[in-house]
Predict the structure.
Amino acid sequence: MAGLAACGGGDGTGPPAERFDRVQLEHQTYGSLLPTGPGIPLILFDSTPVPAEFVSSLQLRGTLLTPAGTVDSTPGTTITWGILSGGGSLATSTTEAVGGVVENEWFLGPMTPGSVQGIVLTSPGVPTYQQTIRLRVYQGPMQFDSSPADAAGSVGETLPEPFVVRVLDGNGEPMPRVLVRFMGGTLAYENPTVSAVYRTCNVSCTPGEPVVFSYTDATGRATVRLTLPTNARTAGLDVQPEAPRQLETSRFLSRIYGPSWTIPVAPGPTAQIVIQSGNNQAGSPGGTLALPLLVTVADRYGNPRVDEPVTWTVVTGGGSVGSPVTATNTLGLTSNSWTLGPAAGSQTVSATAGPATVTFSASAAATP
């Protein structure tokens, strides 16, 4: 259990507590996760050489996590930090975890495109733990390949072709492990080799809008599959790398904007027809009712169907309708007139659109 010192299982105190096997680091400079593994891009430079007056450091904050993903808050746990490659230095070589959290500052060495810098983390109390963090500097400007060229679909549909973004550096080389943000619509992540971080956006986008953060794979690709919203409109999907940021001047880190798509979202197939007005009227035999019969035709989500044919049929009473077939307008509405049959009593007319049918009723009564 996190928060208890490890102990032997034979002394009556219970099994050993599970200790951490990784430190999940965040680089506070960018406010996002700092992933582990080799060849991680950090900064993309448009100018060479890097301005001499530019000094960069990362404020690191790490959480000690067990294999089960719980926080290891064992008192007295220390982390030893060391420079692995690329020069640079650390604010301190040893930090003690407080509540399962450690902090340090990494002053980066000379940052030339292509250089790789690294640090190594160990812990005297957990001999099995060793973790390496490497950061790479790329030559800018960042470039993108993307597909498909365009897309369209209907409400609630998961589009058959995934959206793929490939991130390249200024030399056209793929950039793996770039943190990319996909924003818009309802996103389902599709990349079995790299895990994704799902978040709900509340900054720089519509509050509550679904957002997916994911890392590019070894070929520089990040992939998502888009499920369209349930209201018929034009949907947008925007792509924006979150890290690395791009150095344009000596002290300015700019945001990079990637490809975007505008996706027409059409209504689904006709699923319902609803009476709006004209039902349960009374009139004279052989007379035309005062109010037209008005219906709305929509898909299963309530989106109006435009130019949808509606078939009108006299079911009982022997009367007639103004037109056997009418078409809906841009609001999904259509109407018809009803002339009652010659006999007194209850009479009915049906209106059918696709698989849905409604029935209007009226009563014919002779004038005294």
